[in-house]
Design a protein that fits this description.
With about 300 residues, the protein is an all-alpha fold. It is about 70% helix and about 0% strand. GO terms for molecular function: oxidoreductase activity, acting on paired donors, with oxidation of a pair of donors resulting in the reduction of molecular oxygen to two molecules of water.
């Protein structure tokens, strides 16, 4: 498109939107291979996972596996789920805010975290934190295989775009694409977990732990595509290796089982899921402020 019609602002923005869409969908695709849910043989899943996350996204399969498997084993459990290790930028759930408030820990104005989330969370997670953390992890662990895969992404990208935008313009375009992708990624991944129970280890059984840490988003063709079928987060966490196209088939059985045993099975609209992220951050911030001032 840029080769044919030039690099004016409208086409550049359209190019960035298309690239961000491709990156987001590649993210859901690598997630499938990372969970060994595509091929029957694990070896092929691992190999294609490196291709997709390395060559198509410029990231590391080993970095992703190390973080993501911990998340699935203990979702929303402090000190065990790296996805809720937010380096004291936010306080989450109902236990951590009170703990920080009582100890007079004020690394951030947590009573306003539902507001600065829009400036820190969606815009910066992928272009700043993930990019740095991925490179640091590969270099510090001397993971030369994953680093080589990631370098093929950057070589291909700059080979395509430096002749069109120059070095600085190509870097700016890449950063903007990551910025757009980061918004997509953060809202989709957090709507299923952040508003749910977040606490220290309770030593619960598998079913109870997963149900308390996850919720579903209503099924629709758009929601399935937009979230990479992770709108069926409950089923995904109960059966991590299940191919994504089977979630909708097993969901009625899981829901019936939960109803039979009186267990919560939450389903929301996508907009409600987004709104609950902000509401939960505000509720946690209010708990922190009350404990900070009065306990």
């Amino acid at each position: 498109m840029i080769w044919l019609w030039g690099s004016n602002w409208i086409l550049t923005i359209l190019c960035a939107v298309l690239l961000a869409t491709a990156q987001s969908q590649a993210g859901w695709l690598q997630h499938d291979f990372g969970h060994l849910s595509v091929f029957k043989k694990s070896r092929w899943n691992h190999l294609v996972h490196k291709l997709v996350i390395g060559h198509l996204k410029g990231a590391s399969a080993n970095w992703w596996n190390h973080r993501h498997f911990q998340h699935h084993a203990k979702p929303n459990v402090f000190k065990k789920d790296p996805d809720i290790n937010l380096m004291d930028v936010f306080v989450l759930g109902t236990t951590q805010p009170v703990e920080y408030g009582v100890k007079k820990i004020k690394n951030m104005p947590y009573q306003h975290q539902h507001q600065y989330f829009f400036l820190v969370g969606p815009p910066l997670l992928i272009p700043v934190f993930y990019n740095f953390n991925i490179m640091y992890t590969m270099l510090s662990r001397r993971d030369w295989v994953d680093l080589s895969w990631a370098m093929t992404y950057y070589l291909r990208y700059f080979y395509c775009y430096v002749p069109l935008f120059g070095v600085f313009g190509s870097l700016a375009l890449m950063t903007f694409v990551r910025f757009l992708e980061s918004h997509w990624f953060v809202w989709v991944t957090q709507m299923n977990h952040l508003p749910m129970d977040i606490d220290y280890e309770k030593h619960q059984d598998w079913l109870t732990m997963q149900l308390q840490a996850t919720c579903n988003i209503e099924q629709s063709s758009f929601n399935d595509w937009f979230s990479g079928h992770l709108n069926f987060q409950i089923e995904h966490h109960l059966f991590p290796r299940m191919p994504r196209h089977n979630y909708s088939l097993v969901a009625p059985q899981v829901r019936a089982l939960c109803e039979k045993h009186g267990m919560s099975y939450q389903v929301k609209t996508m907009w409600q899921g987004f709104a609950d992220i902000v509401k939960s951050l505000k509720a946690s911030g209010d708990l922190w402020l009350d404990a900070y001032l009065h306990k």
